[in-house]
Glycoprotease 1
Amino acid sequence: MALSSTLCRLNLIPRPWLPYTVTTLRALKLKPHKPQLLRPMWAPLTLSSFSVSAQIHRPQDDNLIVLGIETGCDDTAAAVSSGEILSQVVSSQADLLVRYGGVAPKMAEEAHSQVIDQVVQEALNQANLSEADLSAVAVTIGPGLSLCLRVGVQKARKTAGSFNLPLIGVHHMEAHALVARLMERELQFPFMALLISGGQNLLILAQGLGQYIQLGTSIDDAIGEAYDKTAKWLGLDMRRSGGPAIEELAREGDAESIKFSIPMKQHKDCNFSYAGLKTQVRLAIESRNINAEIPISCASSQDRRSRADIAASFQRVAVLHLEERCERAIEWALKIEPSIKHLVVSGGVASNQYVRARLDQVVKKNSLQLVCPPPSLCTDNGVMVAWTGIEHFRMGRFDPPPPAVESEDFVYDLRPRWPLGEEYAEGRSEARSLRKARIHPSLTSIIQASLQQQH
């Protein structure tokens, strides 16, 4: 993989203070994909994280078994997939989120480092496999937090190097979109996807594997960040993250009681902004003298009702913003690809049942079908990484095995700011300039450049 980030040696703390939770999913039979054979892709490392080594034996698709590793933010996850889900393990950092009121990168890195070996081993144990049984290792290399990404990449390279396995660098947001293809047999390209998480909102048109048009993106805060901050300011239990806490409390409130403004009504694009809505919520909380230091469980009935009204009013407007942007994006996407039949909604916030119900109305109005992975595959997980690895491996997009022993000054390929697709011309934000500094070329542009070099 390309070398672009400085290696920082990890100080591993031996005490196992972060417990890991294990989730095993029922194996799911999939419709077999016809393998597509491409000639070797000797792409320069400066252009692509993908390359093909002619010396590597590529197993037939029926025999592919891929380990997926995800450490891009605050959960340590690993899974094994063969086109079926053979195992899934997730170590949650919920206690750290409560302690620090959000993700603290250095603490998250330390937590990843302490459990990564256990999580990967448990994923292999659940699948009744060893590393020698694997065909390849897939790992998230971006976007995400550099300190956290490094832990997963380091483990993936160590495993792949020790057992002479190909390595597949995975785009985190692409994995959220593609995991729907594992669950839904009828989902073929082209399709639309709304990816909603704590760090990013993204509306894309998926024209093919690695070929994406960005219809809209976050220009400041993502919806997941807005949910988390609102939950924190309302004194809710953050151990399950802000989304579930807000959704639960909102059921008790009047969604019309507070007239928050819908963001970016004047901007006729598909981009997202939640910073202004967060400010409106904070001011509403302050005007009602709600004290976040008093947990919701200890609040008076009147105080609880005030908090519930804010939660419900916030959720209504936050999701209305999603609906408006999706309506316009569907219109744009159908102009480009009239054959689209599906809208995939994935990412952590897609676990929210209110979000799903509202977006289902939007797609039905446009004669489309909504595809949502189960909640356990919407939040960050290793299954989506393993499956995306399988999809790219079938196309010949992978790196040769790394050396069994890395040099101490080795620089890892980490892409904390990595666009997924090329921006749609009509989708460029007029609201404010998107931050461009230190952004890696998009996955789509990298793959297009590699394909051009083959001809």
Summary: The first helix runs from residue 94 to 100. Residues 1-59 have pLDDT under 50 and may be disordered. The longest strand covers residues 85-92.
